């Protein structure tokens, strides 16, 4: 991997809510995000001199995480409390698409993409730890993350892939031949083939990343896949993951009650459809911490965070 370039911050935008965990951009350069109290917000005017405008589009009643814009002015939402949702952005009406799989309540839905055939694929980060104890799963290394698919008109998701280490961000290949899944706990991206001779199988796509990947985003088929890095690599954690399950479990029970402050080094990656890194951007001693999402909007990079009460606007690198 090439030496990282600078991630240049330009502006911080307060949004009146904590934890804009995922950020996605619409065709007009506006950014949508969900916050801790269940609201879905739209932020406009990110790059102008005037204050940005924040509009409440809906309230899920839960904890929205990953988002996916649909062409009919609707939004797919992975809600950590309620499951997979569809939100009508004109009326603010929230509908639950799925809240269980094989009789098990959906816990900790994380990110979602819509396919051209009308099906929806989404991730579940953990079957053991809820969102508020996310660090417990990272420490315990449970490997209970899943990739699920909801067929058009169905209310029963099917399991495509399981045994993932904190399954998180999700993006499509340019030709929709495969999905890319971020495994936060393993510092890797995994490819799940949708078509071709390997259909139905998963394999490594990009491994040994310089940090823990969280949400991933692709604005257009000809653009790169942007990967947020929620934390830089933590070597002691790598060592802990090699210990017996009982040791990791005990460490997790301590971790969920210990004070936590994110690292001051933040970063994002961009990868192509071969899994090669196109951009690696970092910023040290950052005042904006725990970058859990990144998207392109209005010619800039926009960062979201589970930790912060706003979003960050950064300089977008020149295309390679």
UniProtKB/TrEMBL annotation:
Keywords: Glycoprotein, Phosphoprotein. It comes from the Bacteria. Residues 116-196 form the Strictosidine synthase conserved region domain. Belongs to the strictosidine synthase family. PANTHER family: ADIPOCYTE PLASMA MEMBRANE-ASSOCIATED PROTEIN HEMOMUCIN-RELATED (PTHR10426:SF88), STRICTOSIDINE SYNTHASE-RELATED (PTHR10426). This is SMP-30/gluconolactonase/LRE family protein. It comes from Streptomyces cylindrosporus.
């Amino acid at each position: 991997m090439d030496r990282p370039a600078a991630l240049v911050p330009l502006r911080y935008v307060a949004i009146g809510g904590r934890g804009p965990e995922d950020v996605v951009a619409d065709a007009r350069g506006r950014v949508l995000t969900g916050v801790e109290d269940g609201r879905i917000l739209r932020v406009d005017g990110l790059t102008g001199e005037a204050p940005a405008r924040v509009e409440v589009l809906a309230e899920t009643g839960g904890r929205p995480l990953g988002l996916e814009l649909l062409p009919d002015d609707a939004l797919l939402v992975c809600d950590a409390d309620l499951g997979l949702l569809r939100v009508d952005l004109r009326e603010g009406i929230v509908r639950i698409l799925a809240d269980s799989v094989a009789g098990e309540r959906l816990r900790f839905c994380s990110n979602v993409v819509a396919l051209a055939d009308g099906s929806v694929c989404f991730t579940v980060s953990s079957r053991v730890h809820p969102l508020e104890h996310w660090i417990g799963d990272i420490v315990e290394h449970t490997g209970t993350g899943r990739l699920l698919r909801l067929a058009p008109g169905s209310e029963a998701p099917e399991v495509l892939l399981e045994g993932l280490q904190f399954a998180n961000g999700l993006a499509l290949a340019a030709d929709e031949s495969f999905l890319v899944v971020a495994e936060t706990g393993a510092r890797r991206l995994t490819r799940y083939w949708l078509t071709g001779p390997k259909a139905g199988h998963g394999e490594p796509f990009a491994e040994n990343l310089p940090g823990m990947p969280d949400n991933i985003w692709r604005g257009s088929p000809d653009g790169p896949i942007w990967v947020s890095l929620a934390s830089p690599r933590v070597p002691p954690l790598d060592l802990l993951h090699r210990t017996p399950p009982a040791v990791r479990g005990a460490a997790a029970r301590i971790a969920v009650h210990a004070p936590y402050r994110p690292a001051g080094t933040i970063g994002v990656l961009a990868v192509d459809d071969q899994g090669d890194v196109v951009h690696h951007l970092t910023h040290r001693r950052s005042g904006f911490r725990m970058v859990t999402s990144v998207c392109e909007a209005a010619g800039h990079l926009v960062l979201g965070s589970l930790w912060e009460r706003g979003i960050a606007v950064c300089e977008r690198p020149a295309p390679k």
